[in-house]
Design brief:
Layout lengths: L1 H19 L3 E7 L5 H4 L11 E6 L6 E3 L2 E6 L4 E6 L5 E5 L6 E4 L9 E7 L7 E9 L4 E11 L2 E5 L15 E5 L3 E4 L5 H8 L20 H12 L6 E3 L3 H8 L16 H4 L31 E7 L8 E2 L10 E4 L15 E4 L8 E2 L3 E3 L1
Parallel strand pairs: 2-8, 12-16, 15-19
Antiparallel strand pairs: 1-8, 2-5, 3-6, 4-5, 6-7, 9-10, 10-13, 11-12, 13-20, 14-20, 15-17, 17-18
């Protein structure tokens, strides 16, 4: 009898372990900036436009159920599911995991595009690995890079009290970022730059695969971004806006108001003139900030997409800078600057076509 009970216990434990390995919904939201539902419109049986749910799921051959008119696999990790206007749920079936039913927070609406991010067991929604691929004629080449989640939120940007500064161009003001985004765990490294641009395009001062790329211009960084976007099938890489950069440097949704990115001690988190006047260091040698991002203070400057102008003290939502100006923005300081320039609020100019020795970049990825 004891043997039977033991066997039943082991079977039950095994089944429990299997069913604990379930898919989970990491995010669901409407994306008003995405017009795919309109540009690639599908109508229901009454001729009414459907809602489009873009499902991010790195499981092949998934099958969806609900009030569905059309579904298609767009790549190895994305599906398009067109639902009847007013649909309130979606069921996901795969070969490897129990069935997942997700009830939408509100009924989906026709002609709108939604994003549904589903993660597998062991995947961390706070950290996402993006795989780059291209065929160089000898076979498929692969490079993986890690991106860290910054959740949408509101923060005070500029010369807040802990910055102990009163720069004329960095007036403190409130900023609301309305969408989540992912930012590079590290600065763009030289091995990544060479993977996209070729070995000859790496003109960095201190060479090393895991050193940040430097000695580049804003225009060259844009060429790199255009190249890397050809190597992915899901989402889009770009430079961070200045607000996105500062929010991430401050620790995003986990910020604790430190002077530098993750500490009030510059030497704890960054390479700068006092501890590294000879040049850059490998990424990830210093302490990360609150959300696990490295080297946002020091090592190399990081370019932003914005043109530079003085801050106003009014609250803004999703700022992108002026439409045009003479120069762009770089942030974070570098190995050849003093510690004041490593502050999370310090701003410096960048000329689009000017190559500068200690200038590099960090990527943002969005759906």
């Amino acid at each position: 009898m004891k043997r039977i009970l033991t066997l039943l216990y082991l079977v039950a434990s095994s089944m429990s372990a299997v069913f604990c390995q379930t898919l989970k919904v990491a995010d669901f939201h409407i994306d008003p900036s995405d017009i795919t539902a309109q540009a690639e419109q599908v109508s229901d049986l009454n001729g009414e436009p459907c809602a489009l749910v873009k499902v991010s799921l790195s499981v092949p051959a998934a099958v969806f159920e609900g009030d569905i008119i059309k579904q298609e696999e767009k790549g190895k990790s994305e599906y398009y599911v067109y639902l009847v206007d007013g649909s309130n749920y979606l069921t996901v079936k795969t070969d490897d995991y129990p069935v997942l039913r997700y009830d939408f927070p509100e009924n989906v609406k026709g002609n709108n595009t939604y994003v549904l991010d589903i993660i597998r067991p062991g995947e961390n929604p706070a950290k996402r690995t993006i795989t780059l691929k291209f065929d160089d004629g000898t076979g498929e080449q692969i490079f993986k890079l890690d991106m860290i989640l910054c959740k949408a939120g509101r923060f005070e940007m500029g010369d807040t009290p802990e910055q102990n500064s009163n720069e004329s161009d960095a007036k403190a003001h409130w900023v609301r970022l309305s969408k989540d985004y992912y930012i590079g765990e590290t600065e763009v490294t030289q091995d990544l730059w060479e993977f996209v641009m070729g070995v000859d395009a790496n003109q960095s001062i201190i060479k090393g695969a895991k050193h940040p790329v430097d000695n580049i211009s804003w225009n060259q960084a844009q060429d790199f971004i255009a190249g890397i976007n050809k190597m992915i099938t899901l989402g889009n890489f770009r430079m961070p806006t200045e607000a996105e950069w500062e929010y991430a440097a401050r620790g995003a949704h986990k910020m604790t108001r430190t002077r530098f990115a993750g500490s009030d001690d510059p030497g704890e988190v960054g390479w700068y003139y006092d501890n590294s006047p000879q040049g850059s260091h490998k990424v990830k040698e210093k302490k990360p900030n609150e959300i696990g991002i490295y080297d946002m203070s020091g090592n190399v400057w990081e370019l932003c997409s914005d043109f530079k102008e003085d801050f106003d003290d009014k609250e803004v939502t999703d700022p992108k800078g002026p439409a045009t100006a003479k120069r762009h923005v770089r942030r974070g300081g570098a190995y050849d600057t003093n510690d004041n320039m490593l502050r999370v609020a310090y701003r410096h100019r960048a000329t689009a076509d000017r190559v500068e020795p200690s200038v590099g970049l960090r990527l943002v990825w969005t759906r």
